[in-house]
Amino acid sequence: MTVTLSPLQWWDIPTAAAMDREIFGPDAWSEDFFWTQAASPTVFLIAAHTEDGLAGFAGLSVSGKEAEILTIATHPNIRGRGAGRLLLESLLDTARSRGVEAVYLDVRSDNTAALGLYEAFGFAVLNTRPGYYTGADALVMRASLLGL
Predict the structure, then answer these.
(1) How far does Cα 45 stand from its chain's mean position?
(2) pTM for this one?
(3) Domains in the chain with CATH codes
């Protein structure tokens, strides 16, 4: 399986929204929200494609020296094969190229795979947002890009 990354295109949005609903259920982005994010000059959306089509996506919002990872999602069929890592690396490269010094994100407290990935990239838990997600707290994480 080969994963290729590229900017998320308008024709990917309906599939991305459907995948988001499948993965995140009631916490998913709506298709309208994808369109809003895609139209923002400070948001960078990345698509991961395989031979079978859209397999994942990620989003980053940049504001000065800080950025927020808005989402990283990979289709259940390709989890554990490095697509999430590629998407995260791409977001961090995008942040660095824009002079970002610190990156933040929220992650479900019960998403152990994502927590392990983020910790491997230097993210540390700053705070907890109780009940932020349906059925789980959010952990607020931060990583410094200075010196990396």
Answers:
(1) 9
(2) 0.93
(3) 4-105 (3.40.630.30)
